[in-house]
Amino acid sequence: MVQRQLAVTTDPKAYDETEVNNYNIAKGYDLANDYIKYQSDGGATPTPAFKTLRMLSHDESTKRDVILEEATDQAAPASIYGGVDNLTGNFNGAFRGWDFHESGLLMGIMGYQTPVAYARPGGTGGTSNGYAYELSVVPATLALKIVDNNAKSTAGVGSTRVYRGVGISSAEISLQAKAFAQINCAWVARRVEVFPTGYNSTNEPAGDPAMFYNAVLKWTPEGGSVAAFKCQQFSINLSRPIDTDDYLIGSEFLANLIYNGITDLGGSITLSAADYDKISNTMTGSVSSSVYTLDQGRLEYFGAVSGSSTTVLGNQIPSGQLEILLHSANGDKVVTYILANKCKLTEANASAQGLQKFNKTITWKAQINNTDKFKIAVFDPANNAA
After folding, report:
1. How confident is the model at residue 127 (pLDDT cuts 50, 70, 90)?
2. Model confidence pLDDT, tens digit, residues 37-56
3. Quick count: other Cβ atoms within 10 Å of Cβ 322?
4. Cys-Cys link to 363, which of 279, 321, 335, 347 (CB 3.0-4.6 A)?
5. Cβ–Cβ contacts within 10 Å for residue 298, how many?
6. Facing residues of 377 across strands?
7. Which residue, among 168, 114, 161, 116, has the nearest Cα to 141 in the 3D structure?
8. What is the pLDDT of residue 156?
Protein backbone atom coordinates (compact mmCIF):
# COMPACT_ATOMS: atom_id res chain seq x y z
CA MET A 1 0.00 0.00 0.00
CA VAL A 2 1.36 3.39 -1.00
CA GLN A 3 1.49 5.89 1.87
CA ARG A 4 2.06 9.62 1.81
CA GLN A 5 5.53 10.05 3.23
CA LEU A 6 8.56 12.28 3.64
CA ALA A 7 11.95 10.66 4.25
CA VAL A 8 15.53 11.95 4.51
CA THR A 9 19.07 10.64 4.16
CA THR A 10 22.49 12.18 3.60
CA ASP A 11 23.72 12.91 0.06
CA PRO A 12 27.42 13.81 0.46
CA LYS A 13 28.43 13.53 -3.22
CA ALA A 14 25.57 15.48 -4.78
CA TYR A 15 27.92 18.37 -5.59
CA ASP A 16 31.09 16.29 -5.97
CA GLU A 17 33.25 17.49 -8.88
CA THR A 18 34.04 13.96 -10.05
CA GLU A 19 30.42 12.88 -9.94
CA VAL A 20 29.17 16.00 -11.73
CA ASN A 21 31.93 16.58 -14.31
CA ASN A 22 32.81 13.04 -15.41
CA TYR A 23 29.47 11.26 -15.65
CA ASN A 24 26.25 11.80 -17.56
CA ILE A 25 23.26 12.90 -15.49
CA ALA A 26 21.41 9.82 -14.24
CA LYS A 27 19.16 8.74 -11.40
CA GLY A 28 20.93 7.92 -8.18
CA TYR A 29 18.00 6.57 -6.16
CA ASP A 30 18.12 2.78 -5.87
CA LEU A 31 14.51 1.60 -5.80
CA ALA A 32 15.26 -1.82 -4.34
CA ASN A 33 17.45 -0.64 -1.47
CA ASP A 34 15.93 2.78 -0.74
CA TYR A 35 19.23 4.65 -0.81
CA ILE A 36 21.36 6.86 -3.07
CA LYS A 37 24.30 5.39 -4.94
CA TYR A 38 26.96 7.15 -6.99
CA GLN A 39 28.43 6.57 -10.44
CA SER A 40 31.92 7.69 -9.42
CA ASP A 41 32.48 4.61 -7.22
CA GLY A 42 30.26 2.18 -9.12
CA GLY A 43 27.69 2.19 -6.30
CA ALA A 44 30.20 0.74 -3.83
CA THR A 45 29.55 3.30 -1.08
CA PRO A 46 25.86 4.20 -1.08
CA THR A 47 24.22 6.45 1.45
CA PRO A 48 22.29 5.12 4.44
CA ALA A 49 18.72 4.10 3.64
CA PHE A 50 16.10 6.85 3.78
CA LYS A 51 14.63 7.47 7.24
CA THR A 52 10.92 8.24 7.56
CA LEU A 53 10.07 11.52 9.29
CA ARG A 54 6.50 11.95 10.51
CA MET A 55 5.34 15.37 9.30
CA LEU A 56 2.24 17.51 9.72
CA SER A 57 2.68 19.25 6.37
CA HIS A 58 5.15 19.64 3.53
CA ASP A 59 5.32 21.44 0.21
CA GLU A 60 7.64 21.49 -2.78
CA SER A 61 8.09 23.88 -5.69
CA THR A 62 9.80 23.61 -9.07
CA LYS A 63 10.39 26.93 -10.83
CA ARG A 64 12.10 26.79 -14.22
CA ASP A 65 12.89 30.53 -14.07
CA VAL A 66 12.24 30.86 -17.78
CA ILE A 67 14.12 33.23 -20.08
CA LEU A 68 11.80 35.33 -22.24
CA GLU A 69 12.59 36.94 -25.58
CA GLU A 70 10.83 40.28 -25.42
CA ALA A 71 10.94 41.30 -29.07
CA THR A 72 10.00 44.72 -30.46
CA ASP A 73 7.73 43.20 -33.11
CA GLN A 74 5.59 40.95 -30.87
CA ALA A 75 2.93 41.67 -28.21
CA ALA A 76 3.93 38.64 -26.10
CA PRO A 77 7.23 36.78 -25.66
CA ALA A 78 8.55 35.71 -29.05
CA SER A 79 10.23 32.67 -27.48
CA ILE A 80 10.52 31.07 -24.05
CA TYR A 81 13.45 28.99 -22.83
CA GLY A 82 14.28 27.17 -19.65
CA GLY A 83 16.39 29.05 -17.13
CA VAL A 84 17.84 27.69 -13.91
CA ASP A 85 16.16 24.76 -12.16
CA ASN A 86 14.98 26.36 -8.91
CA LEU A 87 13.82 23.71 -6.41
CA THR A 88 12.59 24.70 -2.94
CA GLY A 89 10.20 23.52 -0.25
CA ASN A 90 9.20 23.38 3.40
CA PHE A 91 8.14 20.77 5.92
CA ASN A 92 6.70 20.95 9.42
CA GLY A 93 6.22 18.28 12.04
CA ALA A 94 6.55 17.16 15.64
CA PHE A 95 10.04 17.42 17.08
CA ARG A 96 11.61 13.96 17.33
CA GLY A 97 15.28 14.64 17.88
CA TRP A 98 16.55 11.08 17.58
CA ASP A 99 14.90 10.66 14.16
CA PHE A 100 16.54 13.90 13.04
CA HIS A 101 19.91 12.50 14.13
CA GLU A 102 19.47 9.13 12.42
CA SER A 103 18.20 10.64 9.16
CA GLY A 104 20.92 13.30 8.94
CA LEU A 105 18.43 16.17 9.21
CA LEU A 106 20.03 17.51 12.38
CA MET A 107 23.38 17.67 10.61
CA GLY A 108 21.65 19.41 7.70
CA ILE A 109 20.43 22.05 10.13
CA MET A 110 23.60 22.44 12.20
CA GLY A 111 26.18 21.95 9.43
CA TYR A 112 28.62 19.23 8.43
CA GLN A 113 30.38 17.54 11.38
CA THR A 114 30.89 14.30 13.24
CA PRO A 115 28.51 14.47 16.22
CA VAL A 116 30.15 13.74 19.54
CA ALA A 117 28.90 11.25 22.13
CA TYR A 118 27.01 13.03 24.87
CA ALA A 119 25.70 11.88 28.25
CA ARG A 120 22.00 12.29 28.89
CA PRO A 121 21.42 14.97 31.56
CA GLY A 122 20.53 13.24 34.81
CA GLY A 123 21.11 9.85 33.22
CA THR A 124 23.10 6.82 34.27
CA GLY A 125 24.00 5.33 30.91
CA GLY A 126 27.28 7.13 30.23
CA THR A 127 28.26 9.03 27.10
CA SER A 128 26.76 6.46 24.72
CA ASN A 129 23.22 7.69 25.37
CA GLY A 130 23.21 10.48 22.82
CA TYR A 131 24.97 12.75 20.35
CA ALA A 132 25.59 16.49 20.35
CA TYR A 133 25.85 18.91 17.44
CA GLU A 134 27.31 22.43 17.35
CA LEU A 135 26.86 25.04 14.63
CA SER A 136 29.25 24.48 11.73
CA VAL A 137 30.20 26.82 8.88
CA VAL A 138 30.19 23.98 6.31
CA PRO A 139 26.78 22.87 4.96
CA ALA A 140 25.77 19.21 5.10
CA THR A 141 24.06 17.85 1.99
CA LEU A 142 20.88 15.77 2.20
CA ALA A 143 18.49 13.90 -0.06
CA LEU A 144 14.76 14.22 0.51
CA LYS A 145 12.13 11.76 -0.71
CA ILE A 146 8.43 12.58 -1.01
CA VAL A 147 5.88 9.87 -1.82
CA ASP A 148 2.64 11.12 -3.39
CA ASN A 149 -0.19 8.66 -2.69
CA ASN A 150 -2.73 10.48 -4.90
CA ALA A 151 -0.86 10.25 -8.19
CA LYS A 152 -1.92 7.68 -10.79
CA SER A 153 -0.22 6.55 -13.99
CA THR A 154 -0.09 3.53 -16.25
CA ALA A 155 2.64 2.22 -13.93
CA GLY A 156 0.34 2.14 -10.92
CA VAL A 157 -0.74 4.21 -7.94
CA GLY A 158 1.50 6.83 -6.35
CA SER A 159 4.66 8.60 -7.40
CA THR A 160 8.03 9.27 -5.78
CA ARG A 161 10.14 12.40 -6.02
CA VAL A 162 13.72 12.33 -4.75
CA TYR A 163 15.39 15.69 -4.28
CA ARG A 164 19.19 15.57 -4.48
CA GLY A 165 21.70 18.02 -3.04
CA VAL A 166 19.29 19.36 -0.45
CA GLY A 167 20.41 22.12 1.91
CA ILE A 168 18.43 23.36 4.92
CA SER A 169 18.15 27.13 4.56
CA SER A 170 16.21 27.74 7.77
CA ALA A 171 14.87 25.83 10.75
CA GLU A 172 12.54 26.86 13.55
CA ILE A 173 12.07 24.85 16.73
CA SER A 174 8.99 25.99 18.62
CA LEU A 175 7.17 25.08 21.80
CA GLN A 176 3.93 26.48 23.16
CA ALA A 177 1.41 25.67 25.84
CA LYS A 178 -1.22 23.06 24.94
CA ALA A 179 0.92 21.57 22.13
CA PHE A 180 3.92 19.41 21.37
CA ALA A 181 7.27 20.76 20.22
CA GLN A 182 7.49 21.31 16.49
CA ILE A 183 10.09 21.90 13.81
CA ASN A 184 9.65 23.83 10.60
CA CYS A 185 12.35 23.66 7.90
CA ALA A 186 12.87 25.37 4.54
CA TRP A 187 15.10 23.73 1.95
CA VAL A 188 16.70 24.15 -1.46
CA ALA A 189 17.81 21.35 -3.79
CA ARG A 190 20.08 20.83 -6.78
CA ARG A 191 17.90 18.54 -8.91
CA VAL A 192 14.99 16.11 -8.62
CA GLU A 193 14.43 12.51 -9.73
CA VAL A 194 10.85 11.43 -10.47
CA PHE A 195 9.45 7.88 -10.43
CA PRO A 196 5.95 6.76 -11.58
CA THR A 197 5.05 4.63 -8.54
CA GLY A 198 5.28 5.05 -4.79
CA TYR A 199 8.40 3.71 -3.06
CA ASN A 200 7.86 3.97 0.67
CA SER A 201 10.53 3.63 3.33
CA THR A 202 9.56 0.91 5.78
CA ASN A 203 11.09 2.26 9.02
CA GLU A 204 8.98 3.90 11.68
CA PRO A 205 9.50 7.16 13.60
CA ALA A 206 11.21 6.71 16.97
CA GLY A 207 9.55 7.83 20.17
CA ASP A 208 6.77 10.28 20.93
CA PRO A 209 6.69 14.02 20.30
CA ALA A 210 8.13 16.19 23.06
CA MET A 211 5.25 17.70 25.06
CA PHE A 212 4.85 21.18 26.53
CA TYR A 213 3.85 20.04 30.03
CA ASN A 214 7.19 18.47 30.92
CA ALA A 215 9.54 20.72 28.97
CA VAL A 216 11.99 22.56 31.22
CA LEU A 217 13.35 25.98 30.27
CA LYS A 218 16.21 27.37 32.35
CA TRP A 219 17.61 30.91 32.29
CA THR A 220 20.83 31.87 34.05
CA PRO A 221 21.22 35.65 33.80
CA GLU A 222 24.75 37.00 33.65
CA GLY A 223 25.66 37.74 37.25
CA GLY A 224 22.58 35.92 38.54
CA SER A 225 21.32 32.47 39.48
CA VAL A 226 19.58 29.84 37.37
CA ALA A 227 15.78 30.03 37.36
CA ALA A 228 12.85 28.63 35.43
CA PHE A 229 11.99 30.64 32.33
CA LYS A 230 8.20 30.72 32.52
CA CYS A 231 6.55 31.52 29.21
CA GLN A 232 3.61 30.63 26.96
CA GLN A 233 5.55 30.22 23.73
CA PHE A 234 9.20 29.83 22.82
CA SER A 235 10.97 29.62 19.47
CA ILE A 236 14.50 29.10 18.17
CA ASN A 237 15.16 30.30 14.62
CA LEU A 238 18.25 29.30 12.67
CA SER A 239 18.53 31.11 9.36
CA ARG A 240 21.32 29.44 7.37
CA PRO A 241 22.23 31.81 4.50
CA ILE A 242 22.68 29.30 1.66
CA ASP A 243 23.70 30.97 -1.61
CA THR A 244 20.68 30.18 -3.80
CA ASP A 245 22.11 32.10 -6.76
CA ASP A 246 25.30 30.05 -7.27
CA TYR A 247 24.66 29.09 -10.89
CA LEU A 248 27.45 28.81 -13.46
CA ILE A 249 27.59 28.96 -17.25
CA GLY A 250 27.20 25.44 -18.59
CA SER A 251 24.50 24.08 -16.27
CA GLU A 252 21.02 24.90 -15.09
CA PHE A 253 21.65 23.21 -11.74
CA LEU A 254 22.91 24.83 -8.53
CA ALA A 255 26.71 24.56 -8.64
CA ASN A 256 27.59 24.43 -4.95
CA LEU A 257 26.00 24.31 -1.52
CA ILE A 258 27.71 27.07 0.46
CA TYR A 259 26.78 29.51 3.21
CA ASN A 260 26.89 33.14 2.11
CA GLY A 261 26.92 35.09 5.38
CA ILE A 262 26.49 34.54 9.10
CA THR A 263 23.76 32.43 10.63
CA ASP A 264 21.01 34.43 12.30
CA LEU A 265 20.35 32.53 15.52
CA GLY A 266 17.65 33.77 17.87
CA GLY A 267 13.93 33.65 18.47
CA SER A 268 10.93 35.01 20.26
CA ILE A 269 9.34 34.34 23.64
CA THR A 270 5.73 35.04 24.59
CA LEU A 271 5.65 35.78 28.30
CA SER A 272 2.91 35.46 30.85
CA ALA A 273 0.80 38.59 31.26
CA ALA A 274 2.04 38.67 34.87
CA ASP A 275 5.71 38.85 33.87
CA TYR A 276 7.73 41.76 35.18
CA ASP A 277 11.36 40.66 35.26
CA LYS A 278 12.14 39.95 31.58
CA ILE A 279 10.41 43.10 30.31
CA SER A 280 12.07 45.33 32.89
CA ASN A 281 15.49 43.65 32.44
CA THR A 282 15.40 44.39 28.71
CA MET A 283 14.37 47.99 29.32
CA THR A 284 16.92 48.76 32.06
CA GLY A 285 19.76 46.51 30.86
CA SER A 286 20.07 45.09 34.38
CA VAL A 287 18.72 42.21 36.46
CA SER A 288 18.86 44.34 39.62
CA SER A 289 15.52 45.37 41.13
CA SER A 290 17.10 48.63 42.30
CA VAL A 291 17.94 49.77 38.75
CA TYR A 292 15.03 51.72 37.28
CA THR A 293 16.37 52.99 33.96
CA LEU A 294 19.07 52.25 31.38
CA ASP A 295 22.55 53.43 32.45
CA GLN A 296 21.29 54.57 35.84
CA GLY A 297 23.99 56.55 37.67
CA ARG A 298 26.01 57.17 34.49
CA LEU A 299 26.58 60.53 32.76
CA GLU A 300 25.83 61.28 29.13
CA TYR A 301 28.59 62.96 27.09
CA PHE A 302 30.82 63.75 30.11
CA GLY A 303 31.25 60.37 31.85
CA ALA A 304 34.62 59.60 33.42
CA VAL A 305 36.50 56.66 34.94
CA SER A 306 37.82 57.15 38.45
CA GLY A 307 39.66 54.18 39.90
CA SER A 308 37.27 51.24 40.11
CA SER A 309 34.17 53.37 39.49
CA THR A 310 32.86 54.90 36.27
CA THR A 311 30.11 57.20 35.04
CA VAL A 312 30.79 56.37 31.37
CA LEU A 313 27.74 54.94 29.60
CA GLY A 314 27.70 51.13 29.38
CA ASN A 315 24.49 50.58 27.36
CA GLN A 316 24.19 47.00 28.63
CA ILE A 317 21.99 44.37 27.01
CA PRO A 318 20.71 41.71 29.43
CA SER A 319 22.33 38.37 28.66
CA GLY A 320 22.41 34.88 30.05
CA GLN A 321 22.57 31.17 29.39
CA LEU A 322 19.53 29.39 28.00
CA GLU A 323 18.84 25.67 28.46
CA ILE A 324 15.90 23.66 27.12
CA LEU A 325 15.24 20.09 28.18
CA LEU A 326 12.59 18.10 26.32
CA HIS A 327 11.45 14.86 27.94
CA SER A 328 9.67 11.69 26.92
CA ALA A 329 5.88 11.90 27.18
CA ASN A 330 5.84 10.18 30.59
CA GLY A 331 8.69 12.36 31.85
CA ASP A 332 11.12 9.55 32.66
CA LYS A 333 14.05 10.66 30.49
CA VAL A 334 15.51 13.63 28.61
CA VAL A 335 15.20 13.17 24.83
CA THR A 336 16.61 16.55 23.68
CA TYR A 337 18.91 19.07 25.35
CA ILE A 338 19.48 22.50 23.79
CA LEU A 339 22.11 24.88 25.14
CA ALA A 340 22.91 28.46 24.16
CA ASN A 341 25.78 29.68 26.34
CA LYS A 342 25.10 33.35 25.80
CA CYS A 343 21.84 34.92 24.67
CA LYS A 344 21.02 38.62 24.51
CA LEU A 345 17.52 39.93 25.16
CA THR A 346 17.30 42.47 22.35
CA GLU A 347 13.66 43.60 22.22
CA ALA A 348 10.69 43.79 24.58
CA ASN A 349 7.10 44.44 23.51
CA ALA A 350 3.91 44.87 25.52
CA SER A 351 0.45 45.67 24.21
CA ALA A 352 -3.06 45.91 25.63
CA GLN A 353 -6.54 46.31 24.22
CA GLY A 354 -9.45 47.30 26.42
CA LEU A 355 -9.38 45.22 29.57
CA GLN A 356 -7.92 42.18 27.88
CA LYS A 357 -4.67 40.95 29.36
CA PHE A 358 -1.32 42.45 28.36
CA ASN A 359 0.49 40.61 25.56
CA LYS A 360 4.23 40.56 26.29
CA THR A 361 7.00 39.26 24.06
CA ILE A 362 10.78 39.16 24.14
CA THR A 363 13.15 38.79 21.19
CA TRP A 364 16.53 37.16 21.75
CA LYS A 365 19.70 36.49 19.81
CA ALA A 366 22.58 34.13 20.56
CA GLN A 367 26.25 34.93 20.09
CA ILE A 368 28.69 32.26 18.93
CA ASN A 369 32.44 32.37 19.39
CA ASN A 370 35.26 30.18 20.69
CA THR A 371 33.75 30.23 24.18
CA ASP A 372 30.02 30.74 23.66
CA LYS A 373 28.42 27.82 21.83
CA PHE A 374 25.04 26.69 20.58
CA LYS A 375 24.47 22.98 20.99
CA ILE A 376 21.69 20.47 20.34
CA ALA A 377 22.03 17.01 21.92
CA VAL A 378 19.55 14.20 21.24
CA PHE A 379 19.09 10.86 22.95
CA ASP A 380 17.65 7.49 21.96
CA PRO A 381 14.11 7.32 23.39
CA ALA A 382 14.35 3.52 23.45
CA ASN A 383 17.43 3.58 25.69
CA ASN A 384 16.35 2.56 29.17
CA ALA A 385 19.03 4.58 30.93
CA ALA A 386 17.31 7.68 32.27
Report:
1. low
2. 999 999 999 999 999 999 99
3. 23
4. 347
5. 13
6. 132, 337
7. 168
8. 83
Query: Strand, helix or coil at 99?
Result: helix
Which residue in 26, 22, 53, 76 sits closest to 182, CA to CA? 53
Give the model confidence (pLDDT) of 268-318 as tens digits. 999 988 888 889 999 999 888 899 999 999 999 999 999 999 999 999 999
363 pLDDT more than 70: yes
Give the list of residues 6+ apart from residue 357 with CB closer than 8 angstroms, or none: 273
* DSSP output for 116-179: EEEPPTT-SSGGGGEEEEE--SSPPPEEEEEEEEEEEETTEEEEEEEEEEEEEEEEEEEEETTS
Which has the closest alpha carbon to 206: 378, 357, 344? 378
Q: How far apart are CA 52 and CA 181, in angstroms?
A: 18
Burial class (CB in 10 A: 0-12, 13-18, 19+), 256: middle
| Ramachandran class of 32: left when φ > 0, alpha when ψ lies in -120 to 50, beta otherwise | alpha
